[in-house]
Amino acid sequence: MKASARCKQESLHRWLKFNAVGVLGFCVQLSALWLFVTAFKIGAFVSTALAVEAAVLHNFAWHHFLTWKDRRAGKWRDSLLRLLAFNATNGTISVAGNLFFVYLIADGHEIPLLTANLLAIAVCSLINYILSDKIVFRMASNER
Fold this sequence. Notes:
- This protein is mainly α.
- It is built from 4 helices and no strands.
- α1 runs antiparallel to α4 (113-136).
């Protein structure tokens, strides 16, 4: 198999893993959202932010051990730095995107909170994949 074809196949495989993890993270986010709103009676904005952060931490662990396992650093310090980078990129995009949609859609137009969160997840997913692949889980220069 040619190198470019193998590279495309690996990218597709990674994208599929990313989305599978995203589906699990989606379940974590919606479950946490339900728990915060229903059981703890926390407001929509705070519940959304907490639920997104729960999903971000969940997704990082799966991406670290599955999606980008071939790019894992050997030292725990490097993993911690990646977690911080993941939170700064994917976490920021996800929280900002979700809060924006909740503010824009759910608060002003009587659209359910769940629908607003679904739209935000769909929009933020592609941005988060690119940030993860090119910044957070990029190969170290000595691995290339």
